[in-house]
Amino acid sequence: MKKSYQSLEDNSDHTMKQVINRNLSSRFLLLGLIALLSFSSHTIFAQDGDPVAGKSLFNSQCAACHKLDKKMTGPALRNVEARLAEDEGLDRQWLYSWIRNSAGMIKAGDAYANKIYNEYNKTAMTAFPQLSDADIDNILAYTAQPKEEPKNTGLPPIDGGPKGETSSFSNKIILGALALLFALLAAGLFLVNKTLRRFADEKGIAVASDDREERTPIWKAFVQNQFLVLMSAIFLLLASAYFAYGWMMQVDVNQGYQPIQPIHFSHKIHAGDNKIDCKYCHSSARVSKHSGIPSLNICMNCHKSIAEYNGEVTPEYSKEFYDGEIQKLYKAAGWNDAEQQYSGTPSAVKWVRIHNLPDFAYFNHSQHVTVAGVECQTCHGPVEEMEIVYQHAPLTMGWCINCHRETNVDLKDNAYYTKIHEELSKKYGVNELTAAQMGGLECGKCHY
Amino acid sequence: MKSLYKILLITILVGAFTSCQKDSRPNYQYMPNMYEPVGYEAYGEYEVFPNEQEAMLPAEGTIARGMSAYDYKNTEDDYQAAKANLVSPLDSTQVDLERGKVLYDIYCGICHGNKGAGQGTLAKREKILGIPSYADAGRAITEGSIYHVIYYGRNSMGSYASQLSEEERWQVTAYVEKLKTDLEK
Q: Inter-chain contact A305–B76, Cβ cutoff 8 Å?
């Protein structure tokens, strides 16, 4: 057994060199060798190939450029062996040498190799000298598997697009129906009251209303009691002052602001489920005032390979809905997924800005993110759980100041602070300094 | 009867006020001319710009401060040339592997894995397949080819030039080299 493995390996080593040298005579020798070997039980197994092992190899080595049923950097590979045998008369030997060293074959002038190379705009396929014949057999076995039909789970298809709208629509219907019901009830009560009174009038029963005249009505009693009037006037004034103050204080505070974005971009899926670092997309937060919204080329770094959504779905958002959103991204970037190239005219995605300080206040991300080492979530809340982003903090001056009073400055390993720290800690007689003691309360730091 | 009308009136008023408070619309401002900038704000929409977008690509032929021109083109030939000839301008004292690691973990680790073996989160979750290990013999990456690939991308990998400055790219390159030698051990 061991021996046959050995010879297989030697042999694969051979093939590679042979192809490079295009040495015909030794090629014949090799063919003979392979013919001999194919009688041993080992190679027969290898010839058939193991699609399961092939799948993992394919996914780790080839899937960067090939998909089974779709053109990517390279051609679709479903049934590639059968296709090449039929159309071009190429055998498995050709495939072995192509996969191990396609560049060598192109250079050596192999006709089909050059044809396909030019067809793909001279994109070089990586060489895989490390793959043995058995490995390649496994991969080919995997590519020869019939296409899986989409599984029918028996569930009725969930309607995709305007899911959110329908639910809010039905809410409105329910509310409207309730309001109508109340109106009917009120009208009913009114009518019942009226008819009862009419009956009473006809029968000559005096409805007990006469003796009411004798008692002073409650409001008159109230007006006559001056103390009560004074107290309730004060109470009313205070209450309205309280509400007026509350209302005026919330003017221009946009906590909870959650606009609808042109593309339904879910931070929950990107930063939560797939754990993409915030700074991957908001990369200028490290070095500048602004955190920045990623341009579309950054989206396409991943979405060239991710054309559809295969993660968890909720009743509110279905797979079709998410796929449609990715198509919107492709349309804006001008990417043609079938051709795998940029061919359309790109257009801007007009994201709606959420966090926005007034013009007279200055806030700098790199000071907080890089220098102070504050996590994004401290200020922006649990963004990685938000399906749609909303403003978590009030962004008022009081909010900034509170945090400056409470947060210590990270002085460690920061040469810039060593001297300041010494002087200031002497001045305040403390070991740790808050941002406020460093000058984070000076008006000019935030207003200029 | 009167009380009924009053109750109705109050419900209508309350309804009218609460329906104004919507999360999908920004709140009122006291004095918009104090709040809204006169100059052009980052990411603003202004008529003077093409497409009304303040965010634009740098003018062609310009080089940002602190960066230098990169002479290799985005072609296979120049990839091979960079692979063979391009070397890092950082000497051993300027290489900061700690910073390289931080940047690498943010921008590359998500696909290539924090060890560089091609097992990042996206690969493990089978969202993006076929991410190579840096130690792949068939690729035989070098300092120059790593930098070239960060700059232009390669096949299904995109360019990272817009997220990393020139110096940061070389720091990441140095860190990838380290990962490669660790993997080959």
A: no
